Amino acid sequence: MPFKTTLFALIALSFAAALPGCGDKETTTDDSEVPTDDSSADDTATPVETPTVVINEFMASNATIIADAEGGYADWIELYNGGDAAVDLSGWFITDDLASPEKHVLGAITIEAGGYVLLWADDDILDGDDHLAFKLSGDGEDLALYTPEGVAADELTYQAQTTDQSAARFPDGGETWAITDAPTPGASNGDGT
Length: 193
Ligand SMILES: [Ca+2]
Ligand SMILES: [Ca+2]
What we know:
The chain is α+β, with helices and mostly antiparallel strands. About 20% of the residues lie in helices and about 25% in strands.
């Protein structure tokens, strides 16, 4: 955002510089407003804040738990929005490799406030926006989610997984991960009991 701030200041300055030619008494006022504009531009940069969407649950080896629209039992990832506003995930990045953060760019998917989105990690993007360009290894690998600006919303590395068990945060969006044999794809993880 420093670039945006600088650009705004330059526009304000050139506008003020143009004024003496057409007006008379307002030049001083406009000059004094330039620093004010600078600080308000900094304020508008603040909304690039901590993302409210996290990876909430995932299953790296799905044999019988849930099938996608095509009937395939693909690996899946559940996202959760713990914020109080819906988030448009267009342009967000999701990956199974921290060294390759832009592996998949999410399409037109909105996650409601307090809502869940289920993504299929089947390396079959032709099946729709909820299908990702990678699969999850049952032997363990990375999983990460980034905003379009590259801010890490979530980054984790997991160990080998058991078929039909998921790894989930308890409670939703919480810091504690646990393996469960009662997966809840697309719905609240509950309290883990
Ligand atoms: Ca993978
Ligand atoms: Ca869940």
